[in-house]
Amino acid sequence: MGDMASDNGLAALGAEGAAAAAHALSLPAEAYGNDPRLEVMWAMKAYNHAEVYFNLISSVDPKFLKLTKMDDKIYSSFRETFKDLDIKLLNADDLKSEKAKETWRPFCNQFEGLVEDFNYGTLLRLDCERDYTEENTIFATRVQFFAIEIARNREGYNNVVFKSKSSKS
Questions:
Q1: Cα distance between residue 77 and residue 16, in whole Å
Q2: Total-model pTM
Q3: Cβ contacts of 100 within 8 Å, gap of 6 or more
Q4: 83-107 residue pLDDT tens
Q5: Domains (ranges, CATH) in the chain?
Q6: Cβ neighbours of residue 117 under 8 Å, at least 6 residues apart?
C-alpha cells in the first residue's frame, strides 16, 4: 500500500495541486525528514487544507468566517507585530528573510499549546486575489496562515475571491 501512495499521491492532486505540492516539497528536507511517503502524505494534507479553505472563502462571506477559537487574539497580536505588512500581496521575504523570521518566531511561539498544530506546515497564497498555483503559493506555519488569512478576511482582501465565485453561480 505504501508504494501506491507514493506512486499516485501527487498525480491524485491534479496538475495545479501537484505543482503547488511539489513546490512546497522543494523546501529544506529537515522540515520533514526524508521518507518520501511522508512527504507525499504531507503534501496531500496541505493541499487538501488549502483546497477546503479556498472553497470556504469562495462560498461564505469571508468577514463572517471564524478560523480558530482565538481569532481575535491572533488578529490583534498580528496587527500589533506586523503593522505595515501588505497582506494583499505578500512576497517570500515577508515570511522567509532572516529579518522576517526574527519577528515571526516569537509571534508564532506565543500560540504554542493554544492553537492546535501551530507550527504545522501549511500552504499560503501570496496574492490573495488568486487561487493556489505554484507561483502563488508559499510554505508557512499554521499560525502564519491563520494570522494572515484572518487579517485578509477582516480587512476585506478575500472579498474578491468570494465575489468572483458567487457571481458565477
A1: 33
A2: 0.76
A3: 93, 94
A4: 999 999 999 999 999 999 999 999 9
A5: 2-168 (1.10.3560.10)
A6: 142
Sign of CA dihedral 97, 110, 28, 135: negative
User: Strands (DSSP E) along the chain, which ranges?
Assistant: 121-125, 137-141
| CA pair distance 133, 20, nearest whole angstrom | 6
Which amino acid, 6?
S
Residues 137-152 pLDDT 10s:
999 999 999 999 999 9
- What is residue 64's DSSP assignment? G
Provide CB contacts within 8 A for 90, sequence distance 6+: 124, 126, 127, 138, 148
| CA 114/CA 109 separation, integer angstroms | 10
